Each structure stands twice: as structure tokens, then as C-alpha cells.
Amino acid sequence: MATAAATPPHGGLPEEVVVWEILVRLPPKSLLRCRAVCRAWRSATSARDFLAAHHARQPNLPIAFQEYHGGQSLLAFDNRGAAAAQLQPVARLDDDSSLEASCDGLLLLTDYGRGVPRFCVCNPATRQFACLPTLSGFVPLALGMYRHGPTGEYRVLVCPRDEDPATDACYIFALGSVHPLKNIGWLPEVDEMCSSAVLSRGSLHWHLQQYESAAKVIMAFDTTAESFRRMRGPVVPSSDGLFAGMFEMDGILGVACSNDKDKIIGIWMMQDYESEVWTLKYRFELPFEEIKMQCDMRQVRVKHGDMLIVVVPDGNCELLVLSRFGNGLFQINMDGKLVGSFYREDLCLTQLQLKQTLVPHTFFPALEGYVVNAPPFI
Fold first, then answer.
1. Could you tell me which of 296, 310, 259, 252 has the C-alpha nearest to residue 276?
2. DSSP 259-290
3. C-alpha Rg value of the chain to the nearest Å
4. Hey, what CATH topology would domain 58-372 get?
5. Residues 6+ away with beta carbon under 8 Å from 78
6. Which residues fall within 8 angstroms of residue 269, CB to CB, at 6 or more apart?
7. Among the listed ranges 17-21, 142-146, 234-238, which one has the minimum average pLDDT value?
8. Which residue intervals define the domain F-box in the entry (predicted)?
9. Global pTM?
10. Segments making up each domain of the chain, as ranges
């Protein structure tokens, strides 16, 4: 007696369509659940080419943190879902740890609880965590993390936290490498690099804080040649205020400036990267009165660090201002309209973003204290 063939879990759709049009678009947690459906899905979604394509489709989620007694929770802001799901838990850090940098779904942390500060690295999507070797000779400050194209290594750019003529230099080390630090020389402007590094066009970028000049300066670090260069920033009139944040959208570098007095936001975009030409793309006033009504406040002052320019992770490549007032986080579009808000106590914004990945990294098992599904993960 002939037996009927088992019904495919996807209702008869071609396997290629299911894998490369549906599964590749899922968030990491949902994709991991789908691997349990059948062996074919598990095999297809474990292949490295699929994982690379899956990572490329993940949105860049701005990272925030919420302080609590004894530590802080790292949260990813996802604007694609309902308001209740917008802040997704990423990891939980104790008082002795802090977030330093992010790159391709990896987070670089500093652990201060073991006497000498040391770096740790984790992947929230795979829930892997490990400590990096202690750097001898100085206490390091992480300037940024990046993937080195020629070798495929993930590398960290550091400098000493304290001034010391014997160690004043910028250094590079690779995750999982046994090679010593690479000294690339001192950068006098390092003390003026006031923003988190923004990766665009193969370079890390920082804004240099220069209060007395309207002409902004950008410091760039070529992640292939591993060398610094200065770039022209936008010429911002005094009426547009001070630097508030840097961002990247579709390969275009951007700078946001804010004016506390008039509640004005200016968004500058680098239209020509090679010629370093900037254009004022947006300029609008915060909907301050509407925000005050929602907060039920009489007087609210915009503070630097409370605003962050991010790309809305909904596939529309739009920009959104996230602005914190009191315990409220407000979302404002480029027309200056309030488009969303929610409230969370002791919530702070960062300029870092998380682009989740399930791509395996060989350096993890070789590092000290390597664990999976253990703290700092929730």
C-alpha cells in the first residue's frame, strides 16, 4: 500500500523561496526556532553564505541602557514592532562593566571588577562571551572596533586612558590573536574625539569637539591601511548650536547639531565623500510644547546626550530623532513631528548600534573564560 508523502512544512513553496526569501529575513531568535522544524531548514540556515546574507539583512538597532540597582541592562531599540516591544533586552551588565564599542553584531565591553580593567567580547545573538588578554603597560581606552578586510580579523583600536610619554600612542590588536600590540603612533587629537566611532566607507569616523569654530572637523581611520586622516566637516552657523551626534545611512555620513535655546535640530549629510562636500539636509524645531504636555512638565531643558540621530529600522531608510526628556523617549521625524513615544525609568541613549549576526567566529573558543548562555546574557 502506497503511503502519502509528508506535507512540507512550508505548504509546497519551492525550497529556494522559503530559504532565501523568507527565512533569510527573520530576526535571529525566530530563525533559530525555525531550525527545529526540519533537517533541511537546519542545514540550509547553518551554511556560511546564508548566515552572511542573513546578517546583511538585519537592521542597525540603536543601543540604550537602563540603570538598576547593581548594574545596567543593555537594550536594542527596534522601531519596527509595537511600542511594547521596541526595547529588546540584549545583555545585563554589573556595576563593574561598561559598553565600549560594537561591530557586526559583536559588543566590546570593559570589565573593571578584576583589579586591572580588561576587555571582553560578546555576541548577543549566539549568546557567546569571552575575555580578552590583559594589555600590559597601560590601562586601555577603546576608540573603536572594526573588521580588517585583508585578513578578516576583528580588531580593536585603543589608546592609553592616562597620559604617559612612555606609552602615548594608538595601538591595534586582533581578537584571538597571539601577536603583540601594533603601535601606529600617537594622535594628538585623540582627546578631542568626543563621539563614538561611526563606520562608513571602510573607515571609522569621529567628530572633533571644537567649540570656538563653526567649521567642524572629522577624524577618520582607514580600517584597511590602518592610518588616520583629517576630513572637513560641515560649516555650522552658531544659530544651529553644537554637535549632537554622528550617524551613517546607506553609505552616507551624517552629522546632527542642536541648539538648546531655540530647540533647533540641523541634519548635515556628506554628499560627496571624496571631495568632502556637506549639505544641510534637514532643519526643524523640536515639538517641544507637545512633548511637555505628554511629560506633564512645566520646564524641560534639552541636554546634550539626550538626543541621538538614528536610521529608523523599518526598511524605509528614514531618519529619526530619539530625544529623551525625563523618563520619556520621544521619536521625531524629519518634519519635526512627534511620531511616537514611550516611558522607561533611568533610560540612557548611546551612539552605538547593534546589527545582529549568527555568523560563527573562530576566535571565541580560544579566548579565556569562554561561555555560552551565561552572564551577561538575560
1. 252
2. ETTTTEEEEEEEEETTTTEEEEEEEEE--HHH
3. 22
4. Neuraminidase (2.120.10)
5. 59, 61, 85, 86, 87, 88, 313
6. 252, 253, 254, 278, 279, 281
7. 234-238
8. 13-54
9. 0.89
10. 15-50, 58-372
DSSP 20: I
Peptide linkage before 376 cis (omega within 30 of 0):
yes
From CA 265, how far away is CA 278, in angstroms rounded?
Answer: 16
pLDDT in tens, 178-225: 888 899 998 877 877 877 899 999 999 998 876 556 567 899 999 999
Instruction: Please name the residue ranges forming H helices in the chain.
Output: 15-17, 28-34, 39-44, 48-56, 288-295
Phi-psi group of 276: left, alpha or beta (phi > 0 → left; psi -120 to 50 → alpha; rest → beta)? left
In angstroms, the CA 270 to CA 280 distance is: 9
Grid coordinates given for 122? 560578546
- CB under 8 A, 24+ apart: contacts of 273-282: 273/201, 276/231, 276/232, 278/232, 278/233, 278/234, 278/235, 280/234, 281/254, 281/334, 282/319, 282/334
What span, in angstroms and rounded, lies between the C-alpha atoms of 363 and 347?
33
